[in-house]
Design a protein that fits this description.
With 342 residues, this protein is mainly beta. It has 2 domains: 89 residues, Immunoglobulin-like, CATH 2.60.40; 174 residues, Chondroitinase Ac, Chain A, domain 3, CATH 2.60.220. The chain is built from 3 helices and 21 strands. A hairpin with a 2-residue loop joins strand 1 and strand 2. Helix 1 packs antiparallel against helix 3.
Length: 342
């Protein structure tokens, strides 16, 4: 009789352990064309394009979604995402960005921003890498103007993204990729002040602070980008008013620890503007500055990271969550019942 009671208790405990919820939550502010947006539909898709969560932004433009994880003990049923799976966020049907799912049980702040003026490009055949939409890390309060353009990248072929917003100093970015990609977004942000992502002001007489993003987080690095040519302009009167010449103008890049100067060349001028271009193979916060009499380190082209391929790990069978707890409980009950019988 006592054994039957023990068995019954174990059966009751197993479903409660297996039913433990596994999910990851996201919240933040939704903006469209730089303006916070209420009543916007936020949807989340897994790597197969299946919708896994959705919500509508509230009156204060905030949203909250919860993404469920797959229960690996039920392989025949797909309940949600798995570890390291890429998820994509959309606002009113427009891609706001992609990222790997965050840890179970966490609630992550993620502001979502899209633009109605984005142009779309088709995807390239035989793609071997993905860029996806841009999720800006810059608080929207510090963004004066921004513009995003979409298009695929083909290995070793220059792809030009043109920007037409008058206030933006950047007019074109030509990217030569090391890989083929599906459609990616390239976004230029003109900032009100220095980017919140850097630790110190740029040297020299700073004209503009910018952010340039390409693809999702981690994409715009030398491993994926062979070269990018950034074409920008400055009003000639702004240059001469500070006693500077065209040769004093440089585009500076924040490399994670300090500002470095990119090779910058004047390409043309007209009655109002002087035109320049700079080269880089990674994107981050930037500044356009007059560096006359200022010592600035010159950017050294970063080499693409080469990593040795690790052997694939042998697949292991995943036990049901909490199964060890069940066994421990059963053992404890057996000891208690045996003592009582003695």
């Amino acid at each position: 009789m006592k054994k039957c009671i023990l068995f019954f208790l174990v059966l009751l405990l197993i479903p409660s352990v297996q039913a433990m919820p596994s999910a990851t939550s996201y919240w933040g502010i939704v903006s469209i064309d730089g303006i916070t947006k209420s009543n916007a539909l936020v949807t989340v898709y897994d790597s197969s394009g299946i919708e896994v969560a959705s919500a509508t932004s509230l009156q204060d433009a905030t949203y909250q979604v919860t993404v469920k994880w797959d229960d690996l003990s039920t392989p025949a049923i797909d309940e949600g995402v798995v570890d390291n799976e890429m998820i994509t966020f959309k606002v009113d049907g427009k891609t706001a960005g992609s990222r790997a799912i965050d840890a179970k049980g966490t609630n992550n702040k993620l502001d979502l921003s899209v633009t109605d003026s984005s142009s779309s490009g088709g995807s390239s055949g035989g793609s071997s890498g993905g860029g996806g939409g841009v999720v800006s890390a810059e608080p929207y309060e510090n963004i004066m103007k921004k513009e995003s353009k979409d298009g695929p990248l083909a290995k070793d072929i220059s792809k030009t993204f043109s920007f037409t917003t008058p206030e933006l100093p950047v007019s074109q970015i030509a990217i030569t990729s090391n890989i083929n990609t599906e459609t990616i977004s390239v976004q230029v942000e003109l900032l009100k002040n220095r980017s919140t992502l850097v630790k110190e002001d740029a040297p020299g007489n700073v004209y503009e602070y910018l952010n340039i993003w390409a693809g999702t987080s981690g994409f715009a690095v030398p491993k994926n980008i062979k070269e990018a040519v950034v074409k920008f302009k400055l009003e000639s009167s702004r240059i001469t008013s500070k006693g500077l010449t065209d040769g004093d103008i440089a585009m500076l890049k924040w490399n994670g620890t300090q500002w470095v100067s990119l090779v910058t060349e004047k390409t043309n001028s007209d009655s109002k503007y002087t035109y320049f271009e700079s080269k880089t193979n990674a994107f981050s916060p930037f500044a356009i500055s007059g560096v006359k009499g200022t010592t600035v380190s010159t950017a050294v082209p970063e080499a693409a990271e080469v990593t040795a391929q690790k052997p694939e790990a042998t697949a292991t069978t995943k036990e049901a969550p909490g199964f060890g707890l069940v066994l421990a409980f059963a053992g404890l009950m057996a000891v208690v019942l045996r003592k009582r019988s003695n």
